[in-house]
Amino acid sequence: MITLKEGNWRVPKWNRKVFAVAGGLTNYKKFCPEMKLEEQVMVSFRQMLENNDLKLSPVEIKGLVNFLACGNFSDHFQDQLLCEAKVTDYLGLDPIYDIGIKTGGATGGSTVLTAAMAVASGYADVALAVGWERMSEVDTRAGNFYIANAACKDFETRLSRIYAAYYAPMAVRFAWAYNLSEQTRAKVAVKNHLYAYYSPYSQQPGKYTIQDVLDSPMSTYPLRFLECCAMTDGAACMLLCDEKTAYKLTDKPCELFIAGGSHTLRVADRRDMEIPLLPHETPEMYHGLRKKEVQRWPGFESFAAARFAAYFAYRMAGITNPLEELDLVELHDAFTISDIQTYGDIGLRPYGQEPDYIESGDAYFGGKCPANLSGGLIGTMHAVGATGIFQGIECLWQIQGKYDKFHGDPRIWKSFGKKKPEDWRSLQLPDARQALWVSHAGVGSHVTVGILRKAF
Amino acid sequence: MTPRRKITKYTGKPAKVLQSEPALVIEWPRSLAHRHTYGKLSPFFKGLTEGKLLATRCINPECSEHRLWLPPRADCPDCNQPMIWEELPQPVIGTVHTYARVEYAGAGIELTTPYFQIDVELPGVCTIFKGYLQYGTPEIGMKVQACFRTEDPTNTILDIYWIPAAG
Ligand SMILES: [Zn+2]
């Protein structure tokens, strides 16, 4: 049993407030030979500087930048060490200091966390969080093997060489412990592919039925291809500032809180722990959760790293009841099962009742706290180093009321060689004030939980 | 008089062009072998080739974790002291904690697909051990027995596998 001491439970505290003001994305696609990685980063950087209604010119804003956090997951994919030096130079930000960030699938979240720490500490007034991944440098099976190097190389990698095979045992175990049906899993896939249909950035949009998902080819039983994210080429940029600069740059800044948690790379090594409680939870809620023999927490059913990140992020932001106080969430749906498991970790439902978040309708547009209106990883993208930045930007634009501006403008669709669908619909929430996003790595090795709050 | 400098010659193989429109895409071969050490876990991997399953245990009386670790680790994460090796008694019988059927594996897979990956609970072990089931269909709670590839070992984790336990 891992037992943490009082000092470990200290809640992170910014020395001064941190704000997000602008974001930029790219077209997300499987293979983008027409651009090199730094050229793709430039696309997102330009969108961030030019299209976010900022009150200073792009050149003036560049003149304020003090620090870059640069996220990219895998040196294997890029096959270029120190990409961040190329990117910083290419964006014309030399000799501002950049630090490369790597925490697997949570790289984007960790990149935002690093940039936020730079602002909060006073190192920077303006920090750029930028991330990218170029997964098309190898074919899909080789890519799967590269990613499987983020399982334990001595004890796990050789046993499948594909990440779906490390999530599939969780899906089997979760279904056994907490009664999750294949239909509920499929509903997550249907929802996120559908929301991607309304996004010009998306890689895997589609109007599927539950049956389509269940009939799609099996990757690793019980996970089917339509339940899995794809490999993506793409980039994302987010601009963070201190309070004074934020209001100088925009009329619509959002205050940012973000914290992280880590856990062992091997699920095998997760010993039973006491569940850290979120502000709205009581110990009684979990009496009897481990009703089945040999059940442990977090075990194969949950993510301690996500629970820790939420534990700290909610306390940083003063959130006492997430389902009541959050207007939307963007979760790391690399697989349907990882999405569902996270509902318990971040307190959208108590542990053991995760499927109800979908079945109740809460997770849908028009529901109590919609999830992944961006299309998420399953529908829109998983250009790993960019993912946790993309998710934060989609939250930012929702709060700023700019969903339509960034998803409904036919010129954006056209610039990506796509046609805006005739039956496009707006997924803009009427009055989003507070949003959360989860950036997640490995089988739960690193997780950040970020919260954006309307500050206008 | 300085000796004439020799002409520098190109000795490589021209890069294969994969596509030339809209951008030039070339093949960039990568074929490397790493020297990978099993370090202090070497007894475990040698043990597999001898038909033994070795785990580690912390014997520090101050420490709160005295169960076995499998996968083993040389040092205890709780008290940071070196651990000792202990062989599991034969036959090694475990219980399936969860499983997956791998249909589409990544590049370089050394097992024929589809196959079952299983996560095995073992008595007295604080962790859950991942492996594969050589035949049969797993279910949660099923008893399985460890087998070892002592002939033609792979010198990897694939030297241990599981079969349904008799009875
Ligand atoms: Zn110890």
In short:
Chain A is 36% helix and 15% strand. With 456 residues, chain A is an alpha/beta fold.
* Mean pLDDT score of chain A: 96
Q: Approximately how much helix is present in the residues of chain B?
A: under 10%
The CATH architecture of the domain at 19-138 and 233-249 in chain A: 3-Layer(aba) Sandwich
Strand order of the biggest β-sheet of chain B: 8-7-6-9-10
Shape of chain A: globular
Order of helices and strands of chain B: EEHEEEEEEEE
Q: Strand sequence of the main sheet of chain A, in spatial order?
A: 3-2-4-7-1-8-11-10-9
Which features characterize this protein?
heterodimer; A: 456 residues; alpha/beta; Peroxisomal Thiolase, Chain A, domain 1; 9-stranded mixed beta sheet; 18 helices; 36% helix; globular; B: 167 residues; mainly beta; 5-stranded antiparallel beta sheet; extended; binds zinc ion
